[in-house]
Amino acid sequence: MENQIGSSCRICISCTTKAEHSFEWSTAPSLFKMPAFHLLLASGILATGMESSKVLRLFNALNIPNLQQRELSNILKNYVIPAVYEVWQEEQSARLREIQGQEIVIASDMRVDSPGHSGLFGSESTLDMGRNVVLDTQSTEVKNSNAMELESLKRQLKYLEDNRVGVNKLVTDRHIQVSAYMANEKPEVEHSYDVWHVAKGEKKKLIKVAKKKKFQKIKPWIGSIINHIYWIADSSETEDEKEEKWRSILNHIVDIHEHADHIIFVECLHGTLEREWLRKGSAAYKKLEEMLTRPRLIAAIRKLSQHHQTSGLEAKHALDNLFASKNTYHSYHSLSARLYCSNLHYNENSNRKQATTADGKLKWTVSYPKAFKGEKAVGKPLKEKPTYRYIQLILNKVIEIRCLYPSLKKAAVYANDVLPAEPQSLVEKYLAGKERPSKEDVVASRKSRFSTPALPVSRERTSDSKPCACKGKCATRKCDCRAMEVPCNNKCKCKVAKCINRE
């Protein structure tokens, strides 16, 4: 074996001796029936979130010998995806063992919004707020994306319950079905709303209204109203206090800072202000009063989360977009494996510290957030560089599986045991047991919405094609050439200077 590999292992990048591997090296020679590079290439593509078609296209452009797409797909399906499942399950079990028997605070949110609101590519994750690690990710098979968020949450709560992990607080966005379920089925769990989601929704509504001429005076107050939402969440202890502070904004915008009808928050805490106050009874004031006292908004303000938010999950969703882009279709198992790689990367790097210079000063970077439309610069802490130890775990697991199952046939049987059953596809649900139509029938029944093709069609003139004898521009189907969708040629009697049907 050492003669084939050398003094250091050419398959596993980090190891230097055979003893570092947990599998039996006596079976390793069978590994070389498949080039080791092919196995590691497939593993690296999935573990780093790359797309196989783009990698193979790069190799072809540089004339680098590589494997075919079908072979790569077989390796991914039978070796790499099962390995990712196993590595994630080991990571997940270790995280859950640390909190068994404890009560934790979790955040749950669904990735369907960017880019594209599609349940087909949707996924929902559970974040342990105390440790900032992902505990579970669900990619469900439901009828639409609206039904997915509730179903994913139910599965996540049951999974934690089965592993003897209690939940005393849940932070989500304002999903109506989730709110109703938590109120009716899980009243013992405190359910709070993420402040950013509430503020974002209200800001959009206010900006839309302020564009109208008679409500333009609302625009200077939008930033203050949004800041007020964050201040309420941060400074309030009870739901009644949150509501009173929120309702005080209607007095504040008309230069009234004492609130006689309040019990808890009876006076504004700020000093003297110079603002362009609204006039009570004006169109802008009435519109703001209507918008800010909506029952659903008041209910959301009362449930704002004080100390825990879903910002970590928003960062996780951005990472999901890198590992499992919605611009590329992935099968159920492939999508799940890519999301698990995203989880492994997040958990390994979620608690990175802020980077420092050589003399110990904290590093910062200047950002221009999209929310401010480039008009405002924000200082953001620059964190330490991320690590990728999980990739080596996946590579080692892939090689171990290859040594244990040296043929694709055996590996397929193993993968079938490891991977969960793939849910029924939408096509299978729509057919409901009916026989699929044949390809020939589908092609024969194909119809175009347009009488002429949207793109130019190039056809060759046959020997029996009749040349036209037009006197005009050959611009309509009255022209024999135009009717046959062929260009006019020198045999046609139409005038070259006028004809527009010539190449």
Explained architecture:
With 503 residues, the protein is of the alpha/beta class. Among the domains are: 109 residues, no CATH class; 35 residues, no CATH class. Helices cover 44% and strands 8% of the residues. The protein has 18 helices and seven strands. The strands form two sheets. Strands 3-2-1-4-5 form a five-stranded mixed sheet, sandwiched between helices. It has a two-stranded antiparallel ribbon with strand order 6-7. Helix 4 crosses helix 13 and helix 7 packs antiparallel against helix 8. It is extended. The chain starts with a helix and ends in a 20-residue tail after the last helix.
Q: How is this fold's topology laid out?
A:
Elements: H1 2-5, H2 36-47, H3 52-61, H4 69-97, E1 103-111, E2 123-128, E3 133-138, H5 145-162, E4 166-172, H6 176-185, E5 190-193, H7 195-210, H8 222-235, H9 239-252, H10 283-292, H11 295-302, H12 311-323, H13 332-349, E6 364-367, E7 378-381, H14 389-404, H15 408-418, H16 426-431, H17 439-444, H18 480-483
Parallel strand pairs: 1-4, 4-5
Antiparallel strand pairs: 1-2, 2-3, 6-7
Question: Summed up, what is this model?
Answer:
The chain has helices at residues 2-5, 36-47, 52-61, 69-97, 145-162, 176-185, 195-210, 222-235, 239-252, 283-292, 295-302, 311-323, 332-349, 389-404, 408-418, 426-431, 439-444, 480-483; strands at 103-111, 123-128, 133-138, 166-172, 190-193, 364-367, 378-381. The protein is α/β, with parallel strands linked by helices and 503 residues long. Helix 4 packs parallel to helix 15 (408-418).
